[in-house]
Every structure is written in C-alpha cells, then in structure tokens.
Design brief:
The chain has six helices and seven strands. The protein is an alpha/beta fold.
C-alpha cells in the first residue's frame, strides 16, 4: 500500500510540474535568472556604425581569450573578484593593442564595479535590467550596441576555450528537463 501512495505522490508532483511548464512554455519569452552573485562582462561600442561594431567585437573577442586564461584558476567568486581587479592594467593593455592593430584612435574606459544593464531579449529569453557586478569596457562615447556575457560562473568563457567565434549559450530549465525525462 505504501508503494502505491509513493507512486501517487510522484504522479501528482509530475502533473503539477507539467501544468506549470505548460504555462511557462506557452509564453513566447522565458526569463532567465542569472545568479545574483554572477559577474558580467560588457563591451559597449562607440556607435552602431559598422566600423565601431566590428571594433567592439574584436575587443570583446580578445578580452574573452585573456579573461578565460585569467579565470581558469579562480576557485570561487572572491578569487574571481581579486583576479579581475589585479589584472585590470593587463586588460587595459589588451584593449590598447587591439585598438592599435585595428588602426583605431578610439578612446576607451575600463571599469570593474557595479554597473547598470538594460533589459535584453535574446532568442526568446529575457534578461532583467538592473545593477550588476561587472567588468565594463566603453569604447568612444559608448552610444552603440553592446556585447555582454557572464564571467562568473564562466558562461561566456566556455565558448572561448575551443573557438575564436562567438557561439550561442544554451540555457536549460530544470523543470523542463524533469518533464522531458518523465513524459517523453
């Protein structure tokens, strides 16, 4: 009799999860909550002109490679913070080299601290606006579109490991995985 009751409880939990997921899956946008203690990385272009956007992408690409190497030895959030602060002069040199290689006389600012991030919608996922701990590079007057990702946990650095190209990061929902496991 106890086995039957346990199976009934599991079935009820799965039904509740299924109903909840139907409501979530029925919406066009999904809200992804990045951990509160995450550290973001952002590069803001001077403008939306093709030349400025290309420069932003190159700066982001070069910094991602350097950040990956830096963050590999971070064991936790505090280690990550210390390493980012310590390496700011090296990151700045990386930006200067990238600007020189691209024959750009653009100015830049690099800052590690708390910064505003606007809401972003990407592939049906909504990332909430707010103030976030982050490493931000602003090129020129910073009025262009931006690149951003998460440094800690290292969501954007995983892709820099195997490739020089930007790839999409796939986010998964635990509830969705549970439903797929039991109902597919």
């Amino acid at each position: 009799m106890k086995v039957k009751g346990d199976n009934m409880k599991k079935t009820m939990v799965l039904i509740i999860l299924a109903v909840a997921m139907l409501g979530i899956l029925g919406t066009e946008e999904e809200v992804v909550l990045i951990p509160k203690d995450a550290i973001r990385f952002r590069v803001i272009a001077s403008s939306n002109k093709e030349k400025d956007q290309a420069l932003k992408k190159q700066v982001a690409k070069n910094l991602q490679q350097q950040l990956r190497e830096t963050m590999l030895t971070a064991n936790n959030l505090n280690d990550s913070r210390k390493m980012l602060q310590k390496k700011l002069p090296e990151f700045s040199k990386n930006i200067e080299n990238t600007l020189t290689q691209n024959k750009s006389n653009a100015t830049y600012d690099i800052d590690y601290g708390t910064h505003y991030f606007p809401e972003k919608k990407y592939k049906g996922v909504v990332y909430e606006e707010g103030m976030y701990e982050s490493l931000v590079v602003t090129l020129g007057n910073g009025k262009g579109k931006n690149f951003w990702c998460v440094l800690f946990p290292p969501l954007c650095l995983l892709e820099a490991e195997d490739s020089n190209e930007q790839k999409d990061v796939e986010y998964k929902s635990f509830v969705k995985e549970v439903i797929n496991k039991y109902f597919h």
